[in-house]
Amino acid sequence: MKDTTIKRIVPITELRRNFGKVTSRLFEVEELILTKGGEPFATLKIVPEKKKKMLAALAGAWKGTSLDNDDLWNKTVKKKSRRTPISL
Description:
Elements: E1 7-11, H1 12-17, H2 19-24, E2 31-36, E3 39-44, H3 48-58, H4 70-77
Parallel strand pairs: 1-2
Antiparallel strand pairs: 2-3
């Protein structure tokens, strides 16, 4: 069985120096592996409810930008070999 978990390795000193920066991007990975002296020391995971909230806040972030264009998205989801768009 293939493990598709997205992990990131972070030295504990980097976490201490850049805690806000590191934890603000925690929702993008399944877990952080913290190292101490180059060896794995601990893991850090985001609470599933918090991850869901953060991802929901990003949904539709392109509203009001140049990406908010139905014609653009219709061209994007239409396969060249098909006449009808793919349902998303």
